[in-house]
Amino acid sequence: MLVAAAICPCPPLLVPEVAQGAAPELDGLREACGEAVRAVLEAGVELVVVVGAGPSGGVWTEGGAGTFRGYGVPLDVRLPSGGVDGPELAPSLTVGAWLLEQAGAALPTHACAVPADASPARLLGLGEGLAELADRVGLLVLGGGSACRTVKAPGYLDERAEAYDAAAAQALATADLDALAALDPVLSAELLADGRAPWQVLAGAARGTGLKARLSYDEAPYGVGYFVAAWS
Fold it and tell me: Considering only CA atoms, which of 126, 152, 150 is closest in space to residue 139?
């Protein structure tokens, strides 16, 4: 059963070594992410499952390793308590492994990458299955909102982006499972919102739990909507 979840964005710039001179600009985001992850670890969970978007679906149950060397940083991370390095983690999950390391996680940890174009029904069903992996499951859900909030954003300015992000933030702030499940895959893709698929996994996992939510970060640095929430 799902008992706690942390919802965080996963830009590589979260890692100070990657951000370098721009690192202080995201200190507030890092602090919020750290608090949300620690809340999951302190909720008495038996298993943590990291969920993020990936180029294809994949699961990691026996460890997994990721690296930031592609950004010119000699930094490698691995899922805690994996025992072995395992196959290479998807980029979003690599950021998740870094967040868990920063929080001092030592619990059994699995990871799941979900395709950005997966249907809501498939993602909701996956979430229900993840919630049944242990009596007390915690999720670290990785993904952000629209990347089209300003003319300097990765996807340039799209007038629909602000309303999309406002609706997503409200759903995450209130644990509105129906609103998360209703996020449109086509619109999400057009707005470069990589959180849609992982959030719908969360919506499936949280069915019937009555979890309460707290949104601690809702900003759009670099024109990208970033949200941090803790559900417990």
Answer: 126
Q: Which domains does the chain have, with CATH numbers?
A: 2-231 (3.40.830.10)
Beta-strand relationship, 226-231 and 2-8:
antiparallel
For every one of its 232 residues, what pLDDT tens digit does the chain have, with 9 covering 90 and above? 999 999 999 999 999 999 998 778 899 999 999 999 999 999 999 999 999 999 889 999 988 999 999 999 999 999 987 556 668 999 999 999 999 999 999 999 999 999 999 999 999 999 999 999 999 999 999 999 999 999 999 999 999 999 999 999 999 999 999 999 999 999 999 999 999 999 999 999 999 999 999 999 999 999 999 999 999 9
Q: Is residue 110 within 8 Å of 61, Cβ to Cβ? A: yes
Q: Which of 100, 95, 57 is nearest to 81 (CA)?
A: 100
Question: What does the alpha-carbon distance between residue 7 and residue 5 come to, in Å, rounded to a whole number?
Answer: 6
- The token pair that represents 112 in the structure block: 């799941």
Whether the model pTM is above 0.85: yes
Please say whether the beta carbons of 39 and 4 come within 8 A. Answer: yes
Measure Cα distances from 217 to 15, 21, 104, 122 in Å: 17, 22, 22, 28
Contact 126, 201 (CB under 8 A): yes
Sign of the torsion formed by the C-alpha atoms of 226, 12, 138 and 191: positive
C-alpha dihedral sign at 184, 227, 195, 147: positive
